[in-house]
TrEMBL record:
Organism for this UniProt entry: Amphritea opalescens
InterPro entries given in the database record: Calcineurin-like_PHP (IPR004843), CNP_phosphodiesterase-III (IPR050884), GpdQ/CpdA-like (IPR026575), Metallo-depent_PP-like (IPR029052)
Domain Calcineurin-like phosphoesterase, residue spans: 1-196
A GO MF label: metal ion binding
Keywords for this protein: Hydrolase, Iron, Metal-binding
Family: Belongs to the cyclic nucleotide phosphodiesterase class-III family.
Protein name per its UniProtKB record: Phosphodiesterase
Origin: domain of life: Bacteria
Length: 269
């Protein structure tokens, strides 16, 4: 299976910049790149913060741009999103019985579970008892490997200001126990941190990447202030098979030009 992962599009109202750039332009360029290079992908998952302030106009613009994508799209809700306004723009968006934006897709690679980690009234994350009960039921019903998609990471990353608005510590511990009891979770994809990170958490592989509009500075000393910059945006191309999850990050606006090393004098030196 070939999948596209992108995150933190932060769409604003039409014509409105954000931190000195235009999120809509970035998203259009991303869609054009995916269509040109990876239109054969089976799925594109966007892991939250679809809009920066959750306005209806921002979601309408997001929908217009995403409609051009040649790959099927699955949306995950983030802390900058508004569940009701997002659902109004995307009527096919699935909610669980408690009103959380959660759903499951079963495909040839296994079960893809899309989770809602939003904590109302804050940018931090939560995964409460109701959501854990829903997840426990879906894990019990899952066949084959399981892949999780959420906005907040259930662990500390070392970037202290972002970790302060990560997933609730107690919720994360309970989630860890639940996933251990299932034992078939192969990979966790998330957003929120606007940085490329890969590794394993409690034996589960994970990955995230830069957002589309602005990034978080790689700084492990700063305690309180959110330090942003404009490192190049990226999306990920993910290949999944029975044995592997391979994640390639693509800095799609990188201006450097490819060259054939075998034709260069240094190649034969």
């Amino acid at each position: 299976m070939k999948m596209i992962h992108l995150t933190d599009t932060h769409l604003t109202q039409p014509g409105q910049p954000l931190y000195g750039s235009f999120p809509a332009e970035r998203l259009r360029a991303c869609v054009a790149s995916i269509n040109a290079e990876h239109a054969d992908a089976d799925l594109c998952v966007i892991t939250g913060d679809l809009a920066h302030a959750g306005e209806p106009e921002a979601y309408a613009q997001f929908a217009d741009i995403i409609a051009e994508l040649k790959v099927p799209v699955q949306l995950v809700v983030g802390n900058h999103d508004h569940r009701g306004r997002l659902g109004a723009q995307f009527p096919s968006l699935q909610y669980d019985e408690n009103g959380f934006v959660q759903s499951v897709i079963h495909n040839s690679s296994g079960s893809f579970i899309f989770m809602d980690s939003v904590k109302e009234g804050t940018h931090a994350g939560a995964y409460c008892e109701k959501r854990q009960q829903w997840l426990a039921e879906k894990l019990a019903q899952a066949s084959g490997d399981v892949y999780l998609f959420m906005h907040h990471a259930p662990f500390k990353t070392g970037i202290k200001p972002m970790d302060k608005i990560g997933l609730d510590i107690q919720d994360a511990a309970k989630l860890q126990s639940l996933l251990h009891s299932h034992g078939r979770v192969k990979h966790l994809f998330f957003g929120h941190y606007h940085r490329p990170m890969h590794g394993s958490w409690s034996g589960i592989g994970f990955s995230t990447l830069r957002g589309l509009n602005h990034q978080v500075v790689l700084d492990f000393q700063e305690e309180d202030h959110y330090l942003f910059n404009h490192e190049p945006p990226a999306y990920a191309i993910v290949f999944i098979d029975d044995d592997n999850v391979i994640v390639h990050n693509h800095d799609f606006l990188d201006p450097s030009t490819p060259f054939n090393a075998s034709t260069e004098p240094e190649w034969n030196a």
